[in-house]
Fold this sequence. Notes:
By secondary structure, the chain is an alpha/beta fold. It has one domain (5-196): NAD(P)-binding Rossmann-like Domain (Rossmann fold), CATH 3.40.50.720. 42% of the residues lie in helices and 14% in strands. It has 6 helices and 6 strands; from the N terminus they run E-H-E-H-E-H-E-H-E-H-H-E. It has helices at 14-24, 45-54, 78-102, 124-140, 159-165, 175-187; strands spanning 5-9, 28-32, 60-63, 108-112, 149-154, 194-196. It has a 6-stranded parallel β-sheet with strand order 2-1-3-4-5-6, with helices on both faces. Helix 1 (14-24) crosses helix 6. This is Short chain dehydrogenase.
Amino acid sequence: MTRRKVLVVGAGGTLGRAVVAALAERHDVVAVSRSSDPGVDLGVPQQIDTLFDAVPDADAVVCAAAGVQLAPFCTLNDAALAQALHAKLFGQIALLRRAASCLRDGGSVTLTGGRFDGVLPGGSAGALANAGLEAFVAQAAPELPRGLRVNVVAPGWVQETLDGLGLRGPKGTPAREVARLYVAAVEGAMSGQALRVAA
């Protein structure tokens, strides 16, 4: 297996820390968060450009950032919906677009979506962002240049997040298990796929 230089965005979060730990066993990881140096906020496109200027020679990019707050449908006016989609959907697409011109040949980008069984109260904006991201990845993958690949991980509930919120209802998957999907996306040959935890 080839050792790769992997840029992990969102490395300070619950899932991001698990992804960094899993990848660091076999790869050289550059962990990035909003507060790191270099750092990045996916809602600010200029920061994405600055990030790739600072880390120009990565083999892979993993994004474990960009969540969407739960919001009741009745509160989703145009501004609230645009804000909900800005980083989760458009920020990750901006990350992919810039990575496509900066990564080494044959590199990969792994984004983070989401998938939940049933109806999630307040989850309509998140569902839109996640479905849009999966559709975009599936369509964009064949058009990427230089043998680049892109996939999206749809982790569902992460157990540590549920524990932190004090929620006992839905069952989550430990972050270390979800992190294996990101490792598989970086090391594998698939592209245009949505990777999910096995039921």
